[in-house]
Structures are given as C-alpha cells and as structure tokens.
Specification:
Distance between the termini: 20 Å
CATH architecture of the largest domain: Sandwich
Shape: globular
Number of strands: 22
Mean pLDDT: 97
Largest sheet: 7 strands, mixed
Number of domains: 2
CATH superfamily of the largest domain: Jelly Rolls
Order of helices and strands: EEEEEEEEEEEEHEEEEEEEEEE
Low-confidence stretches: none
CATH topology of the largest domain: Jelly Rolls
Helix content: under 10%
Structural class: mainly beta
Amino acid sequence: MNTIHHPAGLRGHANHGWLKTWHSFSFAGWYDPHKVHFGALRVLNDDYVAGGMGFASHPHDNMEIVTLMMEGTLEHQDSMGHRELLRAGEVQAMSAGTGIMHSERNASPTESLHLFQIWVFPKEKNTTPRYAQKSFAEQIDQAESGCTLLVSPDGALGSMEIGQDAWFSMVKMAEGSTFSYDLKKAGNGVYAFLVSGNVSIGGISLHHRDALGITDTAQIGFHASSASKVLLIEVPMHW
C-alpha cells in the first residue's frame, strides 16, 4: 500500500468575505504542483458561504460534479431547467458533459452554509448533461457506525450515478471501532478525507480535515480513536 498524506493545514485557502474556502487540490488562485489531482479526482473544495451570497451563473463542461451539503440550504439553477433547493444531508450529482451553465446561492439571507464540492474527470467526454439529487441524511445518521454509498457508476444500492468508475462513500465510526474498505475496481485509488474525528490508516493518524491518498492495495483498514466521519472517494488512477 502506497500513501500520500495531505494535512489539513497545508490545503489552499481563500477568504473572500462572503466565501471561506479550502482547496485540497490546485484551484483558482492557489497552485501546488504536487496537488493538481489524485487520479481522476480533480477538485475537493471545503466551502462556507455567507447568507444570501453565492456563485453567479458560470459554465462547466466535461466534468462530473458532486456536491455534498453539510449545513444550510443551497439554491441551484442551471441551463437544463432545474431550480432546486439542496439541504443538509443531500447529495447533488451533475454531469456537465457537452456544457452547462449553473448558479449556486445560499437560500438563507442570514445563516451560513457549508458544503463539499468535488470534481471528477469523466470516463467519456461530450456526453449529454444530466442532473440528480438525493437525501442520504437518514442513512448516515441512523446508526452509530456504518458505511453509506453516495455515488457509483451504476447507481447501486440507491446511490447517485456518476460518469466514471468512481465510488463515494461516507463512513461513520464510533470511538474505538474499526472498518475495512474493499476497493471496487483493480487499479483504483482511494482519497480518504476526514470530515470529523480522529482515524488511523496503516499507522498514519488523521485528524479533522486531514486526507490520505491510498494506492496499490485491494483493502484498507481504519481505526477510530474518537467518533468520526470519513469521506472515501475511490477513483481510477489512470483513465
């Protein structure tokens, strides 16, 4: 098993007043030649958006875009005709394909919202754009420990479909518990991003917002020293 450790404190950061954001990979005005992407995973942004503020309409193409809503309510509009609200616990999966325009705004005039936005390079270019969203709040919150599949290539187990051989899972672990993750496809890697808590993987300790890129293994073991949530993003390393 090979690993790449990405401590939270070494992420890119920008404070625009209305937007406080942390970048796991090179984005906008922040560039790190050692953090351009992890396989097909191109962007993992940790965004806090002030009340009433947001991103004006802007274009995307040939990218799989997944948004995980952590707190608050996001208003989404796009050129496919969707005008939707996303609330905490919901996941949005959007294939930009041949091209879309969309905007994102905090639906509350006063309360901040928190989301993770993730971009993955697609398996095929210039596909027909598509949009979907679904709440996973009940599955994630119903148990002290468990693994919820959020995104997959075929929508397995009620997950959202993505145009890549990629799987996103949210793992919830109780203090002192262990978890074993089996990779879904040979040659893939896993980017383990610690949403909260304290977890060790292969002897490496991860704390709040730390991440570990993991390759050359078929199985990954986790141990939680406190109640924790880990976002696992399995992606092809070559595509």
